[in-house]
């Protein structure tokens, strides 16, 4: 449309440009749609300007020339013509355009006036329509308000009518109920009079009470009559009245009550018989009908108990088979594993049977939860206890069963298995369904007589196990000793000691017993305080057993050390003996030394195993016992004190034995020094031969012995115990060497030999890692210099170490030139305080 409009405009523009007699004509249609003034003006110029350009071009072609168009260079003649053309207008059609624009302006003004008129007319018409519309809306609103009012009145009327109808319905229903109640009351009075006729006469009753098809109705009416009669008798008994009629009525109702009771009993028996017959035929619908009717008699308790009592699972033969399944054949000794297997099978069978009965009970009885409660209670109070009576025979703590018969531990293991499996049965029965029955409480009551004194049996069992184990170890040791024989008294003693050595395996077995007992404590003790008390009692047994066992083992090892010391004392000889006697004594002393070294090694092994045993107990306490004691205030600390007290005896025996070990080592060191040390070792002759810088033979033998024998100590001892032992041994060795060297005199070459021995001893004791001992042997090296330096240099020898002057004076007296050089006078003048 826009293109067609533009075409029309172009036609009009061309016409108007060709002659002034055709002015530009505009109408309203030109301003409709997508109007743009810029487009209108552009169209006007674009239509008129080309015609002007064409006329100018035609004029320039008529004059001729080689000028270039579009503003390029022109000739002089062109310039002249241009100058002449300046006097004529640049746009000759401007007047035409101006007139066109004026004409357009006039037309636009006319168009505006026309449009304004039309707009005014439209506004008046719209106002009139709006007024009419508002009037119509107002009328409609009034009509709607009236309609709403009508609806409200109608609703109120309907509500009023409905309330009236409801009241009428209530009155009718109440009247009907009263009529029905009156009718039922009349019937009940009639039936009551029938039952009140004569005692024991049930033949003249209405057909209702003999019709098998109306048993439910008869049972309901009989229960109502009996309830009313018993209530009336109760009121008559409470009220004291002289009226004769009341007494007569009371006696009459007593007859009715007796007849009703007799009828109800007869009816209940008939229903139970019918129920039994239907049960035999598995007619669940008939059973359900009977059970529903019987529920009116004492809430159906008789039917429930009757059903449960006839279950085959409670037959005597079945219960006897239970004992055979769990305990095995009569006369055989059941084991916990076989009992576990038997109980699992039996309890699974019971659970399956109860589950099958539960399906029947759900279909038959109107209150299945009550029946399930009675059934499960019968299981937990009849069938399970009779089995447990045969399984858990409580042994006597005075006359305990022997270990060959299983001992007390057999009873405890049976008790744990039975308790655990019976609790599993209770949980399974709870899952099947047992109503409101506290089946877990019933289970606990079954084991209450056993749990009350359980911990006493646990302690007695642990003591019995320990006693049996000790007897077994003694028998093994005796048998081994007899089969091996003895070679000499000393060797026999050491062998017996070795065979009765402490065994970590035995202590581990103690811990295993205790761990099993703790697991039973966990099983039987539900309260934290009770559990902590039982755990502490059981732990005390373990501590006593381990303490006694390792203490006795250490004492046996000490006995070997004592026997070795006695052998050494036996072969100590005087000075005036023959060579033959001395040789025999030396040979016996060698044997005693060998026994001492063997006893030392045996005791160190015992100490090592003792430490390992204590570590096992401590680890067991940390891993298994602590978490059970921590919830109770003070229980953990008390058990730690018990452990420290129990281990103190073993620590005392170990301390005494280590002291004996040091005595044994020092005795052999002294023997070696006495036997191997020669006087010429430290006073070699001045024969011009180069001095010997090797350690003396005695020193070599002593260091070799110490290195060999202390290997066991380095392996067995740890930590502070090792440090204390080696420090004490180093101090004793230092003191023994000092006393030993006091027996000899030294020349300068002997002093060098002594210093070489001291270096050898010092290097060995450095392996003790005892700084105080190292310091003492370093001072010994300084003291040895008193034999090497010239007499005049002694005064300056100890200026830096005045603490050893006393020992230095003792050493100086051992110089071979002490008297010849008059060193006593010189020293007294130099160190007057020491004299």
UniProtKB/TrEMBL annotation:
<dbReference type="InterPro" id="IPR009976">
    <property type="entry name" value="Sec10-like"/>
</dbReference>
<dbReference type="GO" id="GO:0006887">
    <property type="term" value="P:exocytosis"/>
</dbReference>
<feature type="domain" description="Exocyst complex component Sec10 N-terminal">
    <location>
        <begin position="95"/>
        <end position="211"/>
    </location>
</feature>
<keyword id="KW-0268">Exocytosis</keyword>
<keyword id="KW-0813">Transport</keyword>
<dbReference type="Pfam" id="PF07393">
    <property type="entry name" value="Sec10_HB"/>
</dbReference>
<dbReference type="InterPro" id="IPR048625">
    <property type="entry name" value="Sec10_N"/>
</dbReference>
<keyword id="KW-0175">Coiled coil</keyword>
<feature type="region of interest" description="Disordered">
    <location>
        <begin position="57"/>
        <end position="85"/>
    </location>
</feature>
<comment type="similarity">
    <text>Belongs to the SEC10 family.</text>
</comment>
<dbReference type="Pfam" id="PF20667">
    <property type="entry name" value="Sec10_N"/>
</dbReference>
<protein>
    <submittedName>
        <fullName>Exocyst complex component SEC10</fullName>
    </submittedName>
</protein>
<dbReference type="InterPro" id="IPR048627">
    <property type="entry name" value="Sec10_HB"/>
</dbReference>
<feature type="domain" description="Exocyst complex component Sec10-like alpha-helical bundle">
    <location>
        <begin position="217"/>
        <end position="826"/>
    </location>
</feature>
């Amino acid at each position: 449309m826009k293109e067609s409009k533009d075409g029309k405009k172009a036609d009009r523009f061309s016409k108007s440009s060709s002659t002034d007699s055709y002015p530009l004509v505009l109408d309203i249609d030109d301003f409709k749609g997508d109007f743009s003034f810029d487009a209108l003006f552009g169209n006007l110029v674009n239509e008129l300007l080309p015609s002007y350009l064409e006329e100018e071009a035609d004029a320039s072609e008529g004059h001729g020339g080689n000028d270039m168009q579009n503003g390029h260079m022109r000739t002089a003649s062109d310039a002249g013509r241009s100058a002449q053309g300046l006097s004529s207008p640049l746009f000759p059609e401007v007047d035409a355009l101006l007139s066109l624009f004026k004409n357009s302006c006039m037309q636009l003004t006319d168009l505006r006036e026309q449009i304004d008129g039309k707009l005014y007319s439209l506004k008046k018409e719209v106002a009139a329509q709006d007024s009419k519309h508002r009037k119509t809306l107002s009328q409609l609103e009034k009509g709607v308000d009236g309609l709403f009012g009508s609806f409200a009145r109608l609703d109120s009327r309907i509500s009023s009518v409905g309330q009236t109808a409801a009241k009428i319905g209530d009155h009718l229903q109440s009247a009907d109920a009263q009529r029905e109640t009156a009718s039922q009351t009349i019937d009940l009075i009639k039936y009551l009079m029938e039952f009140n006729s004569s005692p024991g006469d049930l033949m003249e009753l209405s057909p209702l009470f003999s019709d098998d098809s109306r048993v439910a109705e008869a049972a309901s009416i009989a229960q109502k009559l009996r309830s009313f009669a018993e209530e009336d008798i109760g009121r008559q008994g409470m009220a004291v009245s002289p009226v004769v009629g009341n007494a007569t009525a009371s006696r009459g109702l007593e007859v009715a009550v007796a007849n009703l009771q007799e009828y109800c009993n007869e009816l209940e028996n008939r229903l139970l018989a019918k129920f039994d017959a239907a049960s035999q035929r598995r007619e669940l619908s008939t059973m359900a009908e009977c059970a529903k009717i019987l529920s009116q008699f004492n809430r159906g308790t008789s039917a429930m108990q009757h059903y449960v009592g006839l279950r085959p699972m409670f037959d005597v033969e079945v219960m006897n088979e239970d004992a055979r399944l769990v305990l095995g054949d009569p006369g055989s000794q059941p084991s916990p594993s076989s009992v576990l297997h038997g109980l699992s099978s039996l309890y699974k069978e019971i659970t399956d049977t109860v589950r099958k009965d539960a399906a029947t009970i759900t279909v038959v009885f109107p209150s299945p939860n009550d029946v399930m409660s009675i059934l499960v209670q019968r299981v937990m109070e009849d069938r399970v206890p009779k089995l447990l009576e045969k399984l858990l025979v409580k042994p006597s703590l005075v006359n305990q069963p022997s270990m060959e018969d299983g001992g007390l531990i057999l009873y405890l293991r049976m008790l744990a298995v039975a308790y655990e499996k019976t609790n599993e049965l209770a949980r399974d029965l709870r899952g099947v369904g047992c109503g409101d029955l506290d089946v877990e409480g019933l289970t606990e009551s079954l084991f209450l007589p056993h749990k009350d004194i359980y911990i006493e049996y646990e302690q007695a069992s642990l003591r019995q196990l320990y006693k049996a184990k000790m007897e077994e170890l003694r028998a093994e040791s005796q048998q081994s000793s007899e089969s091996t024989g003895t070679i000499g008294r000393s060797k026999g003693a050491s062998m017996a000691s070795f065979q009765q050595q402490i065994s970590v395996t035995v202590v581990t077995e103690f811990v295993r017993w205790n761990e099993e007992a703790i697991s039973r404590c966990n099983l039987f003790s539900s309260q934290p305080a009770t559990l902590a008390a039982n755990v502490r009692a059981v732990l005390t047994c373990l501590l006593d057993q381990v303490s006694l066992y390792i203490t006795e083992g250490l004492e046996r090892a000490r006995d070997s050390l004592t026997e070795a010391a006695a052998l050494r004392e036996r072969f100590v000889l005087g000075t005036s003996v023959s060579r033959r006697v001395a040789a025999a004594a030396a040979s016996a002393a060698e044997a005693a030394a060998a026994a001492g070294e063997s006893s030392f090694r045996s005791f160190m092994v015992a100490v090592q195993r003792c430490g390992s045993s204590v570590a096992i107990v401590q680890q067991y306490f940390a891993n298994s016992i602590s978490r059970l004691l921590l919830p109770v205030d003070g229980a953990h600390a008390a058990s730690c004190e018990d452990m420290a007290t129990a281990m103190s005896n073993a620590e005392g025996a170990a301390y005494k034995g280590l002291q004996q070990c040091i005595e044994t080592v020092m005795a052999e060191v002294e023997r070696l020094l006495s036997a191997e040390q020669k006087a010429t070792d430290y006073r070699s002759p001045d024969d011009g031969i180069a001095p010997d810088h090797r350690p003396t033979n005695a020193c070599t033998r002593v260091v070799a012995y110490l290195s060999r024998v202390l290997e066991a100590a380095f392996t067995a001892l740890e930590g502070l115990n090792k440090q204390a032992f080696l420090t004490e041994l180093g101090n004793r060795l230092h003191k023994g060497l000092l006393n030993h060297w006091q027996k000899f005199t030294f020349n300068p070459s002997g002093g060098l030999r002594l210093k070489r021995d001291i270096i050898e001893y010092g290097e060995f004791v450095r392996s003790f890692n005892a700084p105080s001992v190292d310091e003492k042997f370093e001072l010994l090296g300084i003291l040895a210099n008193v034999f090497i330096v010239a007499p005049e240099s002694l005064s300056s020898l100890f200026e830096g170490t005045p603490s050893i002057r006393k020992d230095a004076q003792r050493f100086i007296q051992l110089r071979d030139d002490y008297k010849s050089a008059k060193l006593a006078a010189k020293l007294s003048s130099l160190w007057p305080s020491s004299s």
